[in-house]
Each structure stands twice: as C-alpha cells, then as structure tokens.
Amino acid sequence: MRSLVADRPLAEQVRAQLAEGMAKGAWKPGEAIPSESQLAARFGVAIGTIRKAVDGLVAQQALVRRQGKGTFVTAHDSGRLMFHFFHIVERDGTKSYPEVRTIDFRRDRAGAEAARALDLSPLDKVVRIRNVLSLRGRRAILDDITLPAQLFPGLTEKIFVARENTIYHLYQSRYGINVLRADERLRGAVASREQAERLGIDEGAALLEIRRVAYTFRDRPVELRVSHVDAARFEYHNTLGKGEVL
Length: 246
What we know:
two-stranded antiparallel ribbon
C-alpha cells in the first residue's frame, strides 16, 4: 500500500488503494477483505475513515457487506448477472438465464465508434466477439462485444468459450477487471438479413437495440456491447431502486 498524503481526503485515498488492491488480486472475488480495525491499523487512520472508504466501494458494488460475516469482494456470478446486468425477459415477464453461443471471435482495429466508446485511438487493437443468446431454447439476442485488446492480453476464443461462469466473471477472475456499472442507451431498429438469419426471424422485423458501455474503477470503459433483441417475443425490464416495505 502507498503512503497517504495530506492534500487529499484520507477516505478517498484509502478507497483508491483498496480498489487498486482488488484490481491487482490482493483479494479475490468472493473473498473477505480485512476487518475495519485491521485496515485502520494498516493505513494508520481512524476506523471512521475506513468505514467511509468501504461505504464508497459498497455503493459502487465493488464490495458487499454480509451481516455477521464481514465485507467481501463482489463476485460476478450468475446471480449478479441476472439481477444487475441482464434485463431481457419474455413477453409474459418470465426471466431465465441465457444460453450463450459464440459465433465469431476476432482481433481488429477499433474504428471510430469503438474508439469513442472505449477511449481508444481508431487504430488501437480490439477483440470483437459475436454471441447468440437464447432464452429457454428460443434465440433472443444477437450480442456484439468489443474489448480493448491491451486490457485482455492473451484472450483467445478457446479461453472465452471455455469460461465456467459469466463473461463478467471471466473479466474479473482472469484479468482483474471488475465491472461496476454500465451505461445503456435503447432504441428501436429493424432486422438486417444477417440479423434475421441469426435470430430466426424475418428480415425487417422489429428489434430492440441496446448499446452498453461497461465501466470499471475510475470510470474506465472496458467493454462496448451492442445487443439486438427480438422485440416480438422479448422485452427490456429493469427495476430501479428497492421495493417499499409497508
């Protein structure tokens, strides 16, 4: 851990160093971080300062508190995917875990759109991945994912396809990239011939287009994902906030 300095709020510095530690693998996904008293001794600050720093990381969903057990590094497992990052349901509201099939994996130059979204040069190298997602056996989504190649060294199609958990879990466990939030823009579209073939629908059929940029610590963009959803059979459903208990 680096020494703290006087010209920045202590809690902010502690939060930044804890985040850096998680990114470098000091604490693995699902593992507990040291107790507040241990962290206070390590940083030489008051427990209130540690609590404020940890509160900030909990608010970012980088950490999660478990009553009576401690504070843990958030793990991107199937449950987190379903409740935080996957919002497509069937028309009757049924939500199910997607089956993912990779149909293209290649390296490329970023180009203008990906460069803007990922804060890259258009000539920077990226990894492009195309997946078809099915829900309960019905093709629902065509996903086009673009990743900055420098953040994912050595990523191959074999590694990507053989992952044992979610895509975001792969980012986290293999590359130390913890997706904390995503910015999404939605609009209507119509299916091209290729999109129609991939989704088993008619050319010109209605699609929902979702453009997502995923961010890690310090609001660094790590993924551009453009999804096209069969709008005749599936919907976007996202519940914001917590339900009120009466």
